[in-house]
Amino acid sequence: MTTLYSYFRSSASYRVRIALHLKGLPYETVPVHLLNQGGEQLLPAFTEINPQALVPVLAEEGHYVSQSLAMLELLEERHPTPSLLPGDAFQRAHIRALSLAIACDIHPLNNLRVLKYLKRELGVEDERKNAWIAHWINLGFTALEQQLAADSARGHFCVGDAPTMADCCLVPQIFNARRFEVDMAPYPTLCAIEQACHALPAFQQAHPAQQPDAA
Fold first, then answer.
1. Buried b / exposed e across 92-118, counting CB within 10 Å, b at 16+?
2. Is position 13 within any domain?
3. Do 94 and 198 sit in the same domain of this protein?
4. Those residues with Cβ within 8 angstroms of residue 67's Cβ, 6 or more apart along the chain or in another chain
5. Is-above-0.85 flag for pTM?
6. Any domain includes 116
7. How do strand 27-31 and strand 57-60 relate by DSSP bridges?
8. How far apart are CA 71 and CA 150, in angstroms?
9. Can you give the residue range of the structural domain that contains 141?
10. pLDDT 10s digits, 109-168
């Protein structure tokens, strides 16, 4: 059985849940609460599994895999249908580029440990912290909106008419944006893709509100 160490509101965990559901793969969730006891991800029981002290972690056949995009690549290699990286080498590179723009350029700057450092160590007040979040999300989303709106490869989803790795990354980041009250009105293309994704059971089942540790 595949096991996913996850936190319901973690966008990185959310990406992997979407991929597992898209591929129809059963898995067991082990909740790791990022706030309880100062953060369960920092406790020895978890850092023995992942010294980075980050969720998610995917456990399968005695292997522990960290980093959400590495997990998506692993799932794609082991369970290639339906594909999250379809097309030729250039299309796959395009899908990866969109995914990385979200997972590496937008998400880390509003991740929990960054926000905690801003507030606790640097004394940044909530208003300025929220401005930080909105700035980096808007900067990334403005570029993605421009790129996808003009992209002939875009269909109902980021690339074509079936969800790919890029959609697995985009939907959780939009969830984060809405949670932090970022105005999504300037991003109609991104919102249309989000709507197409939410019509699919895999995205519905992966939603944070549907997770066993949702609070």
1. bebbbebbebbbeebbeebebebbeeb
2. yes
3. yes
4. none
5. yes
6. yes
7. unpaired
8. 30
9. 89-203
10. 999 999 999 999 999 999 999 999 999 999 999 999 999 999 999 999 999 999 999 999
